[in-house]
Amino acid sequence: QKSGFLGSLNEQQSEALDELKERMKESKFAETIKNHPQGDCNLLRFLRATMKNKTSKRVFRVEDAEKRLLKVLEWKESNQIQEPPEKLDVFRKVYPNYHWVDSKAGTLVWINRLGEAFNNMKPEHLTREMWGHCVGHEMEMAEEELRSTVEPGQEFRGYVSVADCKGIGLGALTRLSLISFISDTAGYNYPEVVGKIVLVNTPWIFPKLFAAFKPFIDKDTLSKFQIHSDIPLEFFRNEFDLDKLPVEYGGNNEMTVPYPLDSKKYTPGQD
Q1: 20 to 30 A Cα–Cα from 123, which one of 83, 117, 171, 237?
Q2: Residues of the chain with pLDDT under 70
C-alpha cells in the first residue's frame, strides 16, 4: 500500500495525524470532525494532499492540512452544501450525468456528455456562484455514495468520471474561466473523491483545446486523466459491470446517457 494510508503510516505521518486531531478539537468544527463517518481516513485525505509537489513525498504538513480543512468546512457551512441548491434542477439539465456504484470497479462511475455540455453552456443558465454551489452539492452526494462502498472508517476509492468529448469545439475556449472554477471547486474541497478522469471520443481539435485548459488544472488532477480518441471498449469491459455500463459504451444497459439542455438531442424529461 502507498505511504500515507492507514496501515502504512511512517512515524512522522502518524504523529502528524495525532497533531491534526488535537488541533481540530479546538476548532468550532470539533464535533463535525469527531462524528465524520470516515474518522481518521477523512483527515488523512487532507494530510496526503500536503505531500503534493514537495521535495519529500512522505512528509505530512499539519499546518497546511489544518488550514485547508478549516477553509473547506467553512465553505461547506456557509453554502449549506448538504442542502439541494435552488437551481439544482437547472444544473442537472445543463450538466447531466448517469452514474452507478460499480461492484466490479469497487467505486462509483459517472458518465456525462462533456463535449455537448461545454458547447451549450450559457450565462443565463446559472450564475458563477450557483455553479459552485451545485458542483459542491453533487460532490458531497458523490462522497456519501463512495462511503457506502466501504465499511465505516475505511478508505474509499475515488470515483471514475467518464467524459464523452464528442462534439466539443473551439467554443469551449470561451468557458475557460468557468471550467477552471468548476475544477478548482471540486478538487480543492473534495481531495481524492475523483479517482480517474477518462476522456473518450476526443476529436482532432482536442489536443489544442486541452493545451489551453492545462494551465488551469492542478498537477494532481492532470495525473488522473486518460485520453482516448474513441471509446476504449476493452478497457471499459474489463473495468466495469457490463450490466450497468450503457450499450453505447460497450455494456449491456439499454439506457441512454442524458443529453444536456439546448443540445440537439436533448429530450425534456430525460433526466
Answers
A1: 83
A2: 1, 52-56, 267-271
Q: What distance in Å separates the CA atoms of residue 164 and residue 184, rounded to the nearest whole number? A: 21
Question: Could you give the CA distance from residue 218 to residue 201 in angstroms, rounded to a whole number?
Answer: 23
Task: Give me the residues paired with residue 246 across strands.
Answer: 253
Q: Which residue, 232, 250, 48, 247, is CA-closest to 40?
A: 48
Query: Which residue is it, cell 470532525?
Result: 33
Q: How is residue 185 written as a grid cell?
A: 471547486
3-state secondary structure 201-262: CCCCCHHHHHHHHHHHCCHHHHCCEEECCCCCHHHHHHHCCCCCCEHHHCCCECCCCCCCCC
Residue 74 CA, chain-centre distance (Å), reads 19
Of 2, 1, 51, 41, the closest CA to residue 21 belongs to 41
Measured in Å, how far apart are the chain's first and last C-alpha atoms? Answer: 40
User: What's residue 262's pLDDT?
Assistant: 79
- pTM score: 0.91
Strands (E), the chain: 98-102, 107-112, 159-164, 194-200, 225-227
Which candidate, 174, 168, 260, places its Cα nearest to that of 207?
168
Residue 101, beta-bridge partner list: 108
Cα separation, 28 vs 110, whole angstroms: 34
